Amino acid sequence: MRLLSDYINNDFKPFSITETVADIQDFFAESTFSHFPLLDNGVYIGCISAVDSETFESEKNITDYRYAFEGFFVRDNMIWLDVLEVFARNNANVVPILDANNKYIGYYEITDIIKFLNETPFLKETGGIIVVEKPTADYSMSQITQIVESNNGKLLGVFVSEANAEKVQVTIKTTLGSVNEIIQTFRRYNYQIVSEHNEDNYLNSLKERSEYLDKYLNM
């Protein structure tokens, strides 16, 4: 599997503080970038938003719009989950990368991060997806892990996919072969199964037939 650092990109040079707004607008018009980094004598000072640049006066210099610079970035040693969070938090498809000395070394594109994620076991390996839900006060990640492993399952990935003051929803990916037993154990521990599974469809079918029989007998 490739390292995240293999996806550091330098296909396009960052903007310079001496750029005109017109040049930046032309760049965004020919690209799909939501943002792009800006340097002042080699020092990263922020990103320009494509949307913001459309509102700038084209005859001016970009230094006239310092108030609009967005200072987000990632470090070259950050894990993929933290990098993905920066993308999401800033609604960006590009994030600049700085090293430990704050030197600009390139940028990540969201399409490359998705390629990286596709190589992780959570997405690449064959397995079953189970989404469970429980009140926040009763939720326990260690219990979820124990339930999977006690049924001879192997976790390929687990993350909190929804959370609020009342409930927590957890998405689990586990090896195939023990999914049914795992689901039944979750039910015994009072977890609600949010995802649909074959055995759930079977139970629903039995319920529907039982309700039909009740109606027939009561006619």
Name some characteristics of this structure.
219 residues, alpha+beta, four-stranded antiparallel β-sheet, three-stranded mixed β-sheet, 8 helices, 10 strands, 35% helix, elongated
Note the gap between the termini: 64 Å
Shape: elongated
Count the DSSP helices. Answer: 8
Strand elements, count: 10
Percent of residues in β-strands: 25-35%
In angstroms, what is the radius of gyration? Answer: 25 Å
Order of helices and strands: EHEEHEHEEHHEHEEHEH
Task: Describe the secondary structure blueprint for this structure.
Layout: E1 15-16, H1 21-29, E2 35-40, E3 43-49, H2 50-53, E4 74-75, H3 80-89, E5 94-98, E6 104-109, H4 110-118, H5 121-124, E7 128-135, H6 141-150, E8 155-163, E9 167-174, H7 179-188, E10 192-193, H8 198-217
Parallel strand pairs: 1-2, 4-5
Antiparallel strand pairs: 2-3, 5-6, 7-9, 7-10, 8-9
What does this structure look like?
With 219 residues, the protein is an alpha+beta fold. 35% of the residues lie in helices and 25% in strands. It has helices spanning 21-29, 50-53, 80-89, 110-118, 121-124, 141-150, 179-188, 198-217, and strands spanning 15-16, 35-40, 43-49, 74-75, 94-98, 104-109, 128-135, 155-163, 167-174, 192-193. It has a four-stranded antiparallel beta sheet. The radius of gyration is 25 Å and the shape is elongated. Mean pLDDT is 87; it is low at 200-204.
Summarize the structure.
The protein is α+β, with helices and mostly antiparallel strands and 219 residues long.
